[in-house]
Amino acid sequence: MHLHEAVRSVVAEVIAADTPVSEQALQDRAAAALAGEGLADHGYSAEFRDLALVMLRFFLANRTDAVAETPVALTLNFGGEEIIVRPDEVLVRPDGVRAVRRIRTGHMRSAESKDVGAAALMLAVKQAFPGAVVELVHLSDGETHALALSDRELKGRKDKLAKFLGDIRAGRFPAEVSSRTCPNCPAFFICGQTPTVPCKKFA
Prior knowledge:
Distance between the termini: 34 Å
Number of domains: 2
Mean pLDDT: 86
Largest sheet: 5 strands, mixed
Structural class: alpha+beta
Shape: flat
Strand order of the largest sheet: 1-4-5-6-7
Strand content: 15-25%
Low-confidence stretches: none
Helix content: 25-40%
């Protein structure tokens, strides 16, 4: 996680500064960010640096020749509810097409391009920038994917978002009980000692 935090901080700096970054400046920023995350003296510091630089070089190459715009929060309204969507980056390509991008340092998940988060971003972009493209950038993969959802898929996700918002307002947060997986709980690692009874493996 520290590696990814370091990369995210450099990406944010580059987007905010919107000035050309030389290779030496990139290396210096990466080194400072890794040190800030406590990785400068780590046994694998050289490997962490190399991984960070691969991701950051892809990020820079991926925005070459584009004009960056300051990313602004976009809003979506669902009846009386409002969702604020914050893209990570907005670029205008040489052909004049605006690309609104979500940037992640990790790998792309299988359903990521179809989930409600992606749909919220796409709906907000369609409303704010008609004709723009929405891109999901994954630095660990070194890949950029244009987000494409059909009108039918967008309507389904919009209905799902409206239902989620209604459930939140109504205070409906049912627990997903499972005998096979632990709850996704913020106190998972500080729950205390396990009981001193024999453990049994379930088939």
